[in-house]
Each structure stands twice: as structure tokens, then as C-alpha cells.
Amino acid sequence: MRFRVSEPEVKPLFAPARPRVLLVDDEPLVLKVFGRSLVRNKYLVREALTGGHALELLSGQWFDVVVADVRMHPMDGFELLARTRELDVSIPVILVSGFPDVGAPARARELGAFAYIAKPVLLEVLRATVRSAVERRRWRSG
After folding, report:
1. What is the dihedral of CA 91, 84, 41, 121, to 10 degrees?
2. What are the residues whose beta carbons fall under 8 Å from the beta carbon of 91, sequence distance 6 or more?
3. Per-residue model confidence as pLDDT tens digits over 7-20
4. Looking at the domain that runs over 20-141, which CATH code has it been given?
5. What is the pTM assigned to this prediction?
6. Long-range contacts made by residues 49-54, C-beta under 8 angstroms, separation at least 24?
7. Gap between the Cα atoms of 117 and 66, Å rounded
8. Whole-angstrom distance, CA of residue 94 vs CA of residue 141
9. How far is CA 78 from CA 1, 21, 62, 64, 71, in A?
């Protein structure tokens, strides 16, 4: 029996033509709704159900922006944000939360989040925020 060993994906020197978005949420329905909205607007979307899976994807692929839920287990969105900053400080991270926490937006800013959006999320707001984050990433990287 022969095994085929695949090469890991290598991060490109330049950003891909279509913006790449990494969606991270432990709710598959949220990933589906956000993903469909972004794909319709010409984004390439990858999904992760956990922060750990997101970090694996981030370590080997180019992404223009990360959109992550705050409340996930075992790694929450704040920890994912901090660990993403360690991998690449130029990746904008948008945090999304459905739980009222008056200190969360300030904490997100302190950790370097690009934006903090409260659920329920208007898809127009999500798309506009992602578009702004992509523009920032491309401007800084190019």
C-alpha cells in the first residue's frame, strides 16, 4: 500500500486576487449564514469550528481577515485574537458576540481587534466591515 504525502500549503508572497476570509464560530449555522453572504460577494471563505483549527489554517495559508465569535470553547475569541497577533500582527481580526458584555469592546480594542460587532449581525454591516479590513490588510501588505 502506497501513501501519498501532500506538501503543506505555502503562504504566497503576494495576496491572492480574491480576498480570503477565515470564519471561526462553534455554531455551524452561523458559519453557513456568514459564509454564504461573503461568498456571494466574491470572497473565498474557509471555516473553522474551533480556535485551534483556525490557528492551524492561519499558520499555513494567507488570509486577509479573520471573523471570530467571542464565546467558543475551549479557546475563546479573545485568546484566538491574541494568538493570531503572535502569528501575524497585520491580519485584521473582527470579533463578533451575541452576549452583552460592556467591557468586551474595550478588551477587543486593547488586544488589537479591527472591529467588534454585536449579534444579531446585519449582513450588510458584516460585509462592510470585512471589506474595510481587507482594504487595510492589502494596503499594509502591498
Report:
1. -120
2. 58, 63, 64, 65, 66, 84, 85, 137
3. 444 455 455 688 99
4. 3.40.50.2300
5. 0.86
6. 49/24, 49/25, 50/24, 50/26, 50/74, 50/75, 51/24, 51/75, 51/76, 51/77, 51/79, 51/80, 51/83, 53/24, 54/22, 54/24, 54/80, 54/84
7. 13
8. 18
9. 44, 18, 21, 19, 9
Parse the chain into domains and list their residue ranges.
Answer: 20-141
Q: Do 87 and 45 contact (CB within 8 A), yes or no?
A: no
Give the model confidence (pLDDT) of 54-71 as tens digits: 999 999 999 999 999 999
